[in-house]
Structure formats: structure tokens, C-alpha cells
Design brief:
CATH topology of one domain: Nucleotidyltransferase, domain 5
Order of helices and strands: EEEHEHEHEEEHHHHHHEHHEHH
Radius of gyration: 21 Å
CATH class of one domain: Alpha Beta
Mean pLDDT: 88
Keywords: Kinase, Transferase
GO molecular function: kinase activity
Helix content: 40-55%
Number of strands: 10
Largest sheet: 5 strands, mixed
Strand content: 15-25%
Strand order of the largest sheet: 3-2-1-4-5
Shape: globular
CATH superfamily of one domain: ATPase, nucleotide binding domain
Low-confidence stretches: none
CATH architecture of one domain: 2-Layer Sandwich
Protein name: N-acetylglucosamine kinase
Pfam family, one: BcrAD_BadFG
Number of helices: 13
């Protein structure tokens, strides 16, 4: 029987913009991390998602000098993987592609991000990246709730796509003469290498993956807001209000399910591309509803993909001890230096 040091586990965290893959052994030693394009089944074809996932698995094995025969588990945390029909579709993409002994598990990327921050303890994770979602979990009661995450057509308030969409609408309103002047017009035209707002229509509707193509403009919104552009500031203000409501609703629903448990100071972990901007994070934390909620707001100390790796270990019955956590944190320290 192989030792814990010789077996391999892979965690894959996939969002609407990019996918991260981590491989490690059974002792918490992270051996390699690699990255690929979006693996969201809601934004890409089955063929694209399959190619991204399989390519990352092979890259991780190669970078860590590992073989498929050492692989015991793969834990996927993918955006758009909540519903049973989605899980069946995604898991079918890996069917027969790995040894039959490999345990493949799939969850939404929110639960894996939460696990990266709480190591499996109770809490709420709020993700604001290409999309947005909150996920609350009380493991001792096996209770979980999700709020938001309904995609760019039905929700994703406070997300990169949503903010970018509002920015584009503001640009077109200024162009019409029915909206105020905003720096967003010149900034977005420069970003897209366009010369006239009329060209935005062709650009937007010509994108194969409209969510990813548009969501990146959220950086422009933040830039303009930091320069006190009134329109951009309004977009950011609305975004943090929506995100606060998503998180507070998740807390309230957990409390309804566990009326006898004190949920007043649950940890609220922030994840996703928008929260990587410290100014935006400060805007969120200073939002009045969040300040009144008593939620303990913090950022993940390790990236969400770590949660996928941790859950792959737990799936195999490996205890997440303090020593194992130390090993995983050691990788993060090495990465930062």
C-alpha cells in the first residue's frame, strides 16, 4: 500500500474567467499549481470545458513528476455546477479519461472557496468575480445555503460582469445625450481599442464568451471610481450594497435553519477577483449594513483552489490536522516570496 507521501490529490477551482489546479500528496505538501482558461459550463461548450480540465490535470501531473497511477482523488469546484443536471454533464466529460480507481467529486466553486478559509468550519463565503454568490455552511448540522449565483441573465449582482455591464450602459447613455458625462467612455474605448461608442455594439455582441470579455472592464470601473468619477462611484456603491445584501441574507437563512445557534459573529470570507482590489474591499467592509451585521469579515489566507485540494483529502478520509494546515500554508508562503 503506497504511503501518504506517494499518493496524489488534485484540486481544481474553476470560475467564469480562469481555472486553477493544485496537486499535492496525502500529507499536505503542495507539489505544483497551474492555471488555464474558464471552465464554467455556463460560459463554454462541453468540448472547451473538457479540454481545460484534462489539460490542467496532465500539466499538474507533469509539473509534479507524478503519474496517473499515483492519483487517488480529483475534487472539482466549478462555477455553474450546482444543479444535478450540471454535475452529470460535467462529470461525463471526465468519464473514462482517468484510471477507474480515481475518485472524482464535483461541487460549486463557492463551497470550495469557503473550505479554503474555514478548513471545513462554519462560515459564509462571498464571491465576487465574473459572477457573484454567497454560500453558508454549518458542518456540524450538515446545513448549507446559497444566495445568488444565478448567472448574468438572472442575477450576479455586484459581480465583475454586472459592474462592467452597468458601465457600458452608462457610456451608451452619455453617447445618446441622456446620461451624464463619465470618464468611463474614454477609458473603455481605450481599453477595447475602439474610437467611437457606436463600435461598442459590434464588439459586445460579437464576443464568443460575452461574460469573460465584458467582466474584465470592472477594473476600468474601479479606476474611474478611485478618480472620483460620479458615475463609476455610483456603480461601485450599488455593487457593494448588493453584495452586502447577498451575504446578510445567507446569514439570516442559516439562522432560520439553526434558530438555537448564535450566528451573530460568523466569519464572512471574501473571495474573487474584485475583492483582490483593496480599495473595493474597503468599500464593502465600510458598507453600513455589513458594519451592522457583526459578521467577521476577512480575506482568504490561501487561494480558493486550496479548498479543492483540502476537500480531496477529506474525501479520502485524511484528517485536516494542524500539521497538515501548516504544510499547506508553507506553500503559500513560498509562493509569495
Amino acid at each position: 500500500m503506497p504511503s501518504s507521501k506517494d499518493i496524489r490529490f488534485i484540486g481544481i477551482d474553476g470560475g467564469g474567467t480562469k481555472t486553477a489546479c493544485m496537486i499535492g500528496d496525502g500529507l499536505g505538501n503542495v507539489l505544483a499549481v497551474c492555471y488555464g482558461a474558464s471552465s464554467s459550463i455556463k460560459s463554454n461548450s462541453r468540448e472547451v470545458v473538457q479540454e481545460v480540465l484534462l489539460s490542467l490535470i496532465q500539466q499538474a501531473l507533469a509539473l509534479s513528476n507524478s503519474t496517473e497511477s499515483q492519483l487517488e482523488g480529483v475534487f472539482l469546484g466549478l462555477a455553474g455546477a450546482d444543479r444535478p443536471e450540471d454535475k452529470v454533464q460535467i462529470l461525463s466529460l471526465l468519464e473514462g479519461k482517468l484510471p477507474a480507481s480515481v475518485v472524482i467529486t464535483l461541487h460549486n466553486d463557492a463551497i470550495t472557496a469557503l473550505s479554503a478559509g474555514t478548513w471545513g468550519e462554519a462560515g459564509i463565503v462571498l464571491i465576487s468575480g465574473t459572477g457573484s454568490i454567497a454560500y453558508g455552511f454549518v458542518p456540524e448540522a450538515s446545513i448549507s445555503v446559497r444566495v445568488g449565483g444565478w448567472g448574468y441573465m438572472l442575477g450576479d449582482e455586484g459581480s465583475g460582469f454586472n459592474m462592467s455591464q452597468q458601465a457600458l450602459i452608462a457610456v451608451m447613455k452619455q453617447h445618446d445625450g441622456r446620461g451624464p458625462h463619465t470618464k468611463l467612455t474614454s477609458y473603455i474605448l481605450d481599453q477595447l481599442s475602439l474610437t467611437d461608442p457606436n463600435q461598442i455594439v459590434t464588439y459586445v455582441y460579437g464576443q464568443a464568451n460575452i461574460r469573460t470579455a465584458i467582466a474584465v472592464l470592472s477594473k476600468i470601473v474601479l479606476q474611474a471610481a478611485k478618480e472620483d468619477d460620479a458615475v463609476a462611484l455610483e456603480i461601485v456603491d450599488q455593487a457593494v450594497k448588493e453584495l452586502a445584501q447577498i451575504a446578510i441574507t445567507a446569514k439570516a437563512r442559516l439562522q432560520q435553519l439553526q434558530p438555537n445557534q448564535d450566528m451573530s459573529d460568523l466569519p464572512l470570507l471574501l473571495s474573487g477577483g474584485l475583492f483582490s482590489d483593496s480599495w473595493f474591499q474597503t468599500c464593502f467592509e465600510s458598507q453600513q449594513d455589513i458594519m451592522n451585521s457583526k459578521l467577521k469579515v476577512s480575506k482568504l489566507e490561501v487561494p480558493p483552489v486550496t479548498g479543492c485540494y483540502v476537500l480531496a483529502l477529506k474525501q479520502a478520509g485524511i484528517a485536516i490536522t494542524d500539521a497538515l494546515k501548516t504544510q499547506i500554508r508553507a506553500w503559500e508562503t513560498r509562493r509569495e516570496t
